[in-house]
Amino acid sequence: PPDSPPAPAPRGVQGNCIKLVTRRTGSFGDIVKMPIAAGNIFIGSFDASIAMKKPREATHFGLQLVGGKPLALEGYYKYTAGETFTDKNKQVCPERHDTADIYAVLYEVDPADFQALNGDDVLSSPRIVMMARIDKPGEPTEWTHFSEPFRLMPGKEFDEERLRNDGYAIAVVATSSRQGAYFEGAIGSTLYVDELRVVWEGTTE
After folding, report:
1. Among 15, 138, 7, which residue's Cα sits nearest to residue 79?
2. In the prediction, which pLDDT does 106 show?
3. 3 state SS of 139
4. What is the predicted pLDDT for the residue at 47?
5. N or C, fewer C-beta in 10 Å, the chain?
6. What is the pTM of this model?
7. Are the beta carbons of 201 and 71 closer than 8 angstroms?
8. DSSP 50
9. How many helices (H) and strands (E) does the chain have?
């Protein structure tokens, strides 16, 4: 629906784009301490059966769709932060300012027993091998191109044999509020994204 946190929008870089908006969840959201919903898209799945009790665990980031060694995450975005940042208790935090988040993680999996990362460990799991993330996305009002390189995590190496055995998964994530998984952010924060892609080693335009 056009008024949901993630929705299609016209006038993208090419054709339509995706519009992600941080919105109020209403009175029920207040009761369960989930007062906002950040607009987000990601590669993975969502387990609605545990979403109310364990919302971060319900989000499963990543699939075994790795086409080689990832070099960069590319795309276009523009962003406007909402005016008032609030925490999970709806308390105004005047010293805080909302920001978007766009990133990708490559991580190790057991090919025979796939276990996705979730909202608690998608940026911190020791299984993460490489990450591409826009550190300070700012608030560009016009379409802005980015090409963020994948960087190896400390002590990690990319293993070609693991790749051949389907032992990696990748997640690409974009959200209108960086702390949205913890129900913190600014209502009205809006992120537009378009033409997102992962560049693999050995691929050409």
Report:
1. 138
2. 98
3. coil
4. 92
5. C
6. 0.94
7. yes
8. G
9. 3, 16
- Residue 146 identity (one-letter amino acid): F
Please state the φ and ψ torsions of residue 184, each to the nearest 5 degrees: -120, 140
Distance CA 139, CA 98 (A): 10
| pLDDT tens by residue, the chain, 205 residues | 777 899 999 999 999 999 999 999 988 788 788 999 999 999 999 998 988 888 899 999 999 999 899 999 999 999 999 999 999 999 999 999 999 999 999 999 999 999 999 999 999 999 999 999 999 999 999 999 999 999 999 999 999 999 999 999 999 999 999 999 999 999 999 999 999 999 999 876 5
Instruction: Say if CB 115 and CB 97 are below 8 A apart.
Output: no
- Neighbouring C-beta atoms of residue 92, cutoff 10 Å: 11
Between the alpha carbon of residue 76 and those of residues 2, 91, 145, 188, 196, the distances in Å are 21, 33, 4, 20, 7
Give phi and psi for 19, each to the nearest 5.
-110, 125
* Nearest Cα residue to 10 out of 18, 193, 74: 18
**Exposed (0-12), middle (13-18) or buried (19+): which is 155, by Cβ within 10 Å?**
exposed
| Dist CA 151 CA 73 (whole Å) | 11
**What are the DSSP calls for 62-108, one per residue?**
-BS---SSEEEEEEEEEEE--S-EE-TT--B-TT-----EEEEEEEE
